[in-house]
Amino acid sequence: MRAIRLGPRSVTALGLTSAIGVAAFGWPLLASRTSGLAHSQDAPWLFAALLPLLLAVVVATIADTGLDAKAVAMLGVLAAAGAALRPLGAGTAGLEPMFFLMVLSGRVLGPGFGFVLGAVSMFAGALLTGGVGPWMPFQMLTMGWVSMGAGLLPGPERLRGRRELLMLAAYGAVAALLYGLVMNLQGWPYIAGLGSGISFVPGDPLHENLVRFVAYVLATSLGWDVPRALLTVVLTLTLGGTVLRALRRATRRAAFDASPVFTERVSEASAASAAPAASAESTGGTPPACR
């Protein structure tokens, strides 16, 4: 069972949110030489758009599947756990233990839940670590994609055991590397403008800037992205089985997909008064009250 399933409205909301995110990450690559490039200007607008879009995902899911208070409570607990894990590494050498929890939560609770969980966890973690800045809405989007991707992996109902852990570890490693790649795309046009061979050049052909971008990633951030991927693999293989069982047990007990059933209950007094009458009728006698 999943806390948030993807219905037509949810898919539309997630697609719109992701499209806006892709545009926010990629527009500098298409900017002219005279454009003013600074995420300090567009990040507040992206953040202002992201919050209602996240709310739209939840509202669309309520309309599609009837999301209830139990799913919201689960979201709050896991978001708090993810935010608490973030300061443990604080990005030191790329070691960020919250990645493995986001991957496992997205796997168990589905892509819609995962996207909202990843974004909210990153927001709460930024408040805890003081990491609030123009990069924060981009981190929220990227972590949402990481957790959502885990929910889209195959075999959520039938694949279990070692094979599932290996699949999640492989996905976690790839997702951790891609997270660094996408976040580099957010910062590279602004912090690498030093006139070097790996700097972004506004107005240059797209393929030339992409070649410089690959060189920039290899020269600067790969030493951070690889340890993040390795830590995610290690935590998934060692703790993943226990965490998956706990998440699935909590999901079963919460019974997110269960529909309420109302049954008519007869009061004890009515049942007691009806019993002698029924007994008398069955024996052909007269009820005691009528004798």
Automatic annotation (TrEMBL):
Ranges annotated as spanning the membrane: 12-31, 43-63, 69-88, 108-129, 165-182, 229-247
Alphabetized UniProt keyword annotations: Membrane, Transmembrane, Transmembrane helix
Membrane in keyword set: yes
Source organism: Streptomyces albiaxialis
Protein name, as recorded: ECF transporter S component
InterPro entries reported in the protein's UniProt record: ECF_substrate-spec_UCP037395
Keyword Membrane: yes
